[in-house]
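Batch manifest, entry 17 of 40.
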Amino acid sequence: MRRHAAAKDRRHGATSVEFAVCLPIMCLVLTGLWEVGRITQVAEVMWNSAREAARDASLGQDKLQTVTTNLLTDLQSAEPTAFGQGHQTTVIAPVISLPANTTGYTCWDSTANRELFTMTFRPPAQSNSLRHSNL
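Output type: structure tokens
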């Protein structure tokens, strides 16, 4: 009988060791899942904000700088920590080279000294007058 009780006590210690080994692995997996969800959320916010800005720009009622400022406001209200809310941000000339016939603005985070995004716009191509031929 006594032998059985001693084996049972050792088993309680093994359970604690197994838990101590598995806990960090479980925490790592859960943290990874959390980060994947966060990355997905930020990506969706960016896509939706970009789509709204493109829609505003396509209507042609606002200047590109106004559309860029509205985009920044959208992003900061949706994801304050990801897009520099509370930081000093400015809209400046693009910090990247743009293709021909393309204009744009870069939203620069002066506090973190980094680019938040660059918005570009290319006006529609000028079409020549249509020529009809009679056959």
